[in-house]
């Protein structure tokens, strides 16, 4: 199967006055528990792995938002799929040291 990078920003609908942070924290817990390499950024989280596995994680993230009480969810996704298995965060970031 194809190697992929998938960046996601998950936006659960919440009740007026309710914080979305606990929902986002839950989504990140699902990514972490999956075991795929990932990097949390200020606006999105990027995962690396097999395309099917990453899409399954997205499905679990969305399901968790409903379980927490969100009536609807927007998941904004950026996806790179490489059939030659060259998709990697390390390769794309090699010339940018952390912290800059």
Question: Quick recap of the structure?
Answer:
The chain is α+β, with helices and mostly antiparallel strands and 100 residues long.
- CATH class membership: Alpha Beta
Query: Which outline best applies?
Result: globular
The side-by-side strand order for the widest beta sheet comes to 2-3-1-4
- The end-to-end span amounts to 34 Å
H and E order? EHEEHEH
Characterize the quaternary organization of these chains. Answer: single chain
Largest sheet, strands/sense/barrel:
4 strands, antiparallel
Q: Strand-residue fraction? A: 25-35%
Tally of helical segments: 3
C-alpha Rg (nearest Å): 14 Å
What features would you describe in this structure?
By secondary structure, the protein is of the alpha+beta class. It has a single domain (3-93), classed as Alpha-Beta Plaits. 36% of the residues lie in helices and 29% in strands. It has a four-stranded antiparallel beta sheet with strand order 2-3-1-4, with helices on one face. A hairpin with a 4-residue loop joins strand 2 (38-40) and strand 3 (45-50). Helix 1 (21-34) runs antiparallel to helix 2. The model has no long low-confidence stretch (mean pLDDT 89).
Helices, strands, pairings?
Blueprint: E1 3-12, H1 21-34, E2 38-40, E3 45-50, H2 51-67, E4 73-82, H3 89-93
Antiparallel strand pairs: 1-3, 1-4, 2-3
InterPro entries: MTH1187/YkoF-like (IPR029756), Thiamine_BP (IPR002767), UPF0045_domain (IPR051614)
Pfam families: Thiamine_BP (PF01910)
Protein name: Thiamine-binding protein
